[in-house]
Amino acid sequence: MKNLLLVILFLFYNSIYCFGQFYTNKNVVDYFEQNYERVPVTSIAIKHNELINELKKLTLDKNIFLIEEIGKSYEGRSINLIKIGNGDIRILLWSQMHGDEPTATLAILDILRFIEKNKNDEVVKFILKKLEILIIPMLNPDGADRFTRRNAQDIDINRDALRLQTPEGRILKGIRDKYNPLFAFNLHDQEPYYSNSTCDSLIGLALLAPAYDEQKSTNDVRKRAKQIVAFIYNSLQKYLPGKIAEYDDEFEKRAFGDNMQLWGSSTILIESGGFKNDPGKEYLRKMNFIALLSSFVAIADNSYTNISVEEYDKIPKNKRKYCDLLIKNGEVVSTNGNYIIDIAINYEKDLSTSPAKYYKGKIIDLGDLSNYKGINEIDATGYLIYPGKFSILLSLDSLKSKNFIVDLLLNGVTNLITNYNFSLEEKLPFNVVKVGSSAFEWLKNNVNEKCFYFSNLEKNSFIKDNVFLSHYKIGLGYPANLFLVRGKDKIVIIQGMIKYYNGELLNF
User: Cβ-count burial of 121 within 10 angstroms (0-12 exposed, 13-18 middle, 19+ buried)?
Assistant: First the structure.
């Protein structure tokens, strides 16, 4: 009888262990990918009030979610803690410590909605049974509302782990000390211009188990973090092949991630980088969703312990070398003699709508840029590069004709001078310079006076041999307004975007 009881107990405990292993071994990553649903948001640059409204939509089932205000930001906005699960293993996550890094905050909303919708699913039930998950979405609501990195004190919260001069930093430290989580996930966005050090692929996610000392030592705490990072790296290769790298592991004594590691919480940094044709990082938002939920399972079933630290050491490094648009081997037309250059252009992004879009670009580098790669590239071999020209706009009615617009582009016009106020501006494949505007004043002061001049500005008169005026020089920091010609092939690039190509008007 005693032996039978021992056998039953052995089978019972073994079944519990295998229950967890089952999920990992049966490719739980694919399960989360297939069941992903995006929570709709007004803007990728989510504001504090929209976050609060989304949290209010969650179920009031206290067995799943407990939401409480744990303090206020410097300007008095609420900072909230979401508790999920009743397990013995505590995990802490925080997002948007930098206000202009919203990707993980949106992924957290997706996770919450997924758990709510699938609360009776075996995988979800297993996570909730094994773990207590603590989430601080949007640690920096003041910065989020301004879409700035720093808080309202103009302090980088992630450099305030020691002095704790920000209320947001004190709140985070207080939660860590109160709950002493075994794991911590520090969720950020990095610039979308990093490559993989081994294959030059654009990096979608950068991962790190932060160092806790100058020597970059590895104790049991950091070892656990390295194992989870290696788990994420291996698990997401199917969806981000060659697009995951190790973030810079230089020790930063003021940073929260480094100190969380020192304080005893195994800390995993996730930085959302760049993905082609995805300015709002929607795909990387989904990858955050998969990475976090899969990590929860790996922690819950203890399967991450089967991963060696050596797997972490194999992860390629982050290496910066990308730009949004790279124009290679173009020939610049110059009165002092033509010359060959490459031009690197980075876009600014409009995050006010969802999905986000690119809206303008500036030249960040030029010359021999053979060390660069472009997310988008143009081989301009055989093309001549001219500055865009501009013309006076005499009638708004003319803009209703696509042929009129094409004719302007074919003549190299990328800029219009006008006295009109009109709503078509955003849709036009031109820069619009209003008489009396700062851009117009810049033009007056910077054109070549030997060739061009203005008179009777109040009446929008413009004097030159013809109606065209060269606009902006090709130089660092200038808007990327370029006109490329090769035989009958023409390319017009306005504010970094290709608007006209070989007879076809684009993006209009």
Answer: middle
In the chain, what are the domain boundaries? 17-320
**Do the Cβ atoms of 46 and 105 come closer than 8 Å?**
yes
Assign 292 a pLDDT band (cuts: 50, 70, 90): very high
Beta strands in 273-335 (DSSP E): 318-320, 322-332
State if pTM tops 0.90: no
- Which residue type is seen at 87? G
- Per-residue confidence band for 9, with pLDDT thresholds at 50, 70 and 90: very low
CATH architecture of 17-320: 3-Layer(aba) Sandwich (3.40)
Chain-wide mean pLDDT for the chain? 86
What CA–CA distance (Å, rounded) separates 481 from 483?
A: 7
pLDDT higher at 318 or 436: 318
SS3 490: strand
- Give residue 289's pLDDT: 98
Do residues 90 and 175 touch, judged by C-beta distance below 8 A? no
Q: How many beta carbons lie within 10 A of that of residue 210, not counting itself? A: 26
Length of the chain: 508
Max mean pLDDT among 155-169, 403-417, 445-459, 467-481 falls in 155-169
Is residue 355 very low, low, confident or very high in pLDDT (cuts 50, 70, 90)?
A: confident
Q: Mind listing the pLDDT tens digit for each residue in 375-396?
A: 999 999 999 998 787 788 877 7
Task: State whether residue 504 is helix, strand or coil.
Answer: strand
pLDDT per residue as tens digits for the range 469-482: 333 455 676 667 88
Given phi > 0 = left and psi -120 to 50 = alpha, else beta, which region is 302?
left
Output helix, strand, coil percentages for the chain, rounded to the nearest 5: 35, 30, 40
Average pLDDT over residues 229-254: 96
- DSSP letters of 385-423? EEEPEEEE---SGGGG-HHHHHHHHHTTEEEEEES---G
* β-bridge partners, 378: 327
Burial class (CB in 10 A: 0-12, 13-18, 19+), 157: buried
Rounded CA separation 221/430 (Å): 56
Q: Which residue, among 271, 252, 296, 283, has the nearest Cα to 208 in the 3D structure?
A: 271
**pLDDT average, residue stretch 464-473:** 38
Residue by residue, DSSP assigns 414-458 as EEEEES---GGGGGSSSEEEETTSHHHHHHHHHS-TTT-EE--GG
Locate tokens 């060390």: which residue?
371
Q: Do the Cβ atoms of 301 and 23 come closer than 8 Å?
A: yes
Decide: helix, strand or coil at residue 465: coil
CA distance 260 to 268: 10
